[in-house]
Write a structure and sequence with these properties.
The chain has 127 residues and is an alpha+beta fold. The chain folds into 2 domains: 1-43, no CATH class; 45-125, Surface presentation of antigens (SPOA) (Roll). 32% of the residues lie in helices and 23% in strands. It is built from 3 helices and 4 strands. It has helices at residues 4-34, 45-49, 67-71, and strands at 56-59, 89-93, 96-106, 109-117. It has a 4-stranded antiparallel β-sheet, with no helix packed on it. The longest helix has 31 residues, at 4-34. Belongs to the FliN/MopA/SpaO family. InterPro entries: FliN-like_C, FliN/MopA/SpaO, FliN_T3SS_HrcQb, SpoA-like_sf. GO terms for molecular function: cytoskeletal motor activity.
């Protein structure tokens, strides 16, 4: 006959052992990230971050209109924006403003000419 208390005790020990193994594996994985690899150099996190793709956009301006006015917009409609003609446009990276620019023609495409960058700090990622 099997002792039920002994069975539940061994199950608890197995669960504890399993949790310890998982914690050890996570600790080892974190240590691998922080430690230099054999034959290679230390992982260069700032250099790796420079390769992350981002979306760069130019924001011309915006307009706050009613739903009624929005429903009335058609192919020949003109919506006045909150930016004066000739003013620099806002450069955004992933939706965050980082500076101002002008629109230019680059070959057959539009491009941007940077006027100033006030919200971009790549110095913290310098090698």
């Amino acid at each position: 006959m099997m002792n039920i208390n002994a069975n539940s005790t061994s199950d608890a020990l197995l669960e504890d052992l399993s949790e310890e193994m998982i914690i050890d594996q996570v600790s080892n994985d974190l240590a691998d990230v922080a430690q230099p690899r054999s034959g290679g150099g230390r992982r260069d996190l700032p250099q790796m971050m420079r390769k992350i793709p981002v979306t760069l956009t130019l924001e011309v301006g915006s307009a706050r209109i009613s739903l009624q006015d929005l429903m009335a917009i058609g192919p020949d409609s003109v919506v006045e924006l909150d930016v004066l003609a000739g003013e620099p446009l806002v450069i955004k990276v992933n939706g965050t403003a980082i500076g101002r620019a002008e629109v230019v023609v680059a070959g057959e495409n539009y491009g941007l000419k940077v006027i100033d960058l006030d919200g971009l700090n790549l110095d913290m990622m310098a090698p």
